[in-house]
Write a structure and sequence with these properties.
Blueprint (H helix, E strand, L loop, with lengths): L3 E3 L13 E2 L62 E3 L2 E4 L7 E5 L6 E7 L2 E7 L6 E4 L5 E12 L2 E12 L22 H10 L5 H15 L1 E2 L1 H6 L10 H7 L1 E2 L1 H14 L4 E8 L4 E10 L8 E3 L3 E5 L1 H5 L14 E6 L1
Helix pairs in contact: 1-5, 2-5, 4-5
InterPro entries: Papain-like_cys_pep_sf (IPR038765), Transglutaminase-like (IPR002931)
Protein name: Transglutaminase domain-containing protein
Keywords: Signal
Length: about 325
């Protein structure tokens, strides 16, 4: 596939080392865990054949298919009337083709919702008061197993509800165009309004991503104190509107808010957590799908492919070395 040139002007707060690239590049690493997904196997996302250039400013032009802001959001919803199961554990399977599954349960004990396909298993904290959660079907088409697990003691859980179901997605992008548990928003969300403001007048999708990228880098501050507070925490769930309001956050906040903005604008966006060198620091970032190309600085990308976006690194100052990687590579662990 032919390569295209992608460039973005240098940001004022940090060198443009954060990348939109198909290869692997440096990032600011948070050491807090994402609180739940546990794969039975994982693999490195590192690819070869791409290198970052200097990041020098350019004319800032973009190219690609024309863009218009979607008139309606692609939303997700728990349909209680369609749920299968009981109060002890119920599954909403009515929107599997749209890229998500819902679960709810009531219990006096801690609960987990488990989504399994082949050798991968994602575990999500499930409220025990009956409030539902929406989780992405992020492992593509195939047979899924859904399990609600109840804590018995320590780290021991017992299955209280289960169901298997074949999934055929309407689109491979469906799970990454909707709000889910780690990328939550709705029509009234402040991040949606801000995203539409940033996308107003954009000529193409590349211009939209660049506009969102620049705004986040210029306005959101990396919260080193919060990162230290959460270093041993589990179960953390980002709140995109809260990040927008405070204009501060850790890597997971950056990735969640950016994902919410881009998804609400109809641009497929993955929220990814994993590890960055050195020392396998835990981190979160985004990948976006740009159907076309960007014209402007210093990164080579393949058009019509997933492209890595690490806003935390771009926005952070040199800062605390304990939360910053050294540019040697990413390893994807969980994809939401």
């Amino acid at each position: 596939m032919a390569r295209t040139r992608l460039t973005i002007q240098r940001m004022g707060k940090a060198a443009l080392a954060a990348v939109l690239a198909a290869a692997l590049f440096p990032l600011t690493s948070c050491s807090s865990d994402d609180g739940g997904a546990v794969p039975l196997s994982s693999s490195s996302s590192q690819t070869s054949g791409e290198t970052a250039a200097s990041g020098s400013p350019d004319d800032g032009t973009t190219s690609g298919p024309g863009y218009t802001i979607p008139e309606q959001l692609a939303l997700s919803e728990y349909h209680a009337d369609a749920a299968t199961g009981t109060e002890l554990g119920a599954f909403d399977l009515s929107a599997l083709s749209q890229g998500y599954v819902g679960a709810s349960a009531k219990s006096d004990a801690r609960l987990k919702f488990q989504v399994i396909k082949d050798d991968m298993s994602y575990n999500y904290d499930l409220p025990n008061d009956g409030d539902p959660i929406i989780c992405p079907l992020n492992m593509g088409d195939g047979m899924y197993s859904f399990r609600i697990m109840q804590n018995t003691s320590g780290s021991n859980y017992v299955e209280v509800a289960a169901i298997d179901q074949a999934v055929t997605l309407d689109s491979e992008f469906a799970p990454f165009l909707i709000p889910t548990v780690f990328c939550n928003y709705d029509e009234s969300s402040a991040v949606v309004a801000k995203a539409r403001e940033l996308a107003a007048g954009a000529a193409n999708s590349g211009e939209v991503v660049r506009s969102v990228y620049r705004w986040v880098v210029e306005n959101i501050e990396y919260d080193s104190a919060k990162a230290k507070e959460l270093v041993d925490a589990t179960g953390y769930v980002p709140n995109p509107d809260e990040t927008l309001k405070t204009q501060k956050g850790i890597c997971f906040d950056y990735a969640s808010m950016t994902g919410a903005m881009l998804r609400s604008l109809g641009i497929p966006c993955r929220v990814i957590t994993g590890y960055v060198a050195p020392n396998n620091l835990y981190h979160a970032w985004n990948m976006v799908y740009i159907d076309g190309q960007w014209i402007s600085a210093s990164f080579s990308i393949d058009p019509k492919s997933w492209t890595r976006v690490d806003l935390t690194f771009a926005a952070a100052d040199a800062g605390d070395s304990s939360t910053i990687g050294d540019a040697t590579g990413y390893t994807d662990r969980y994809v939401y």
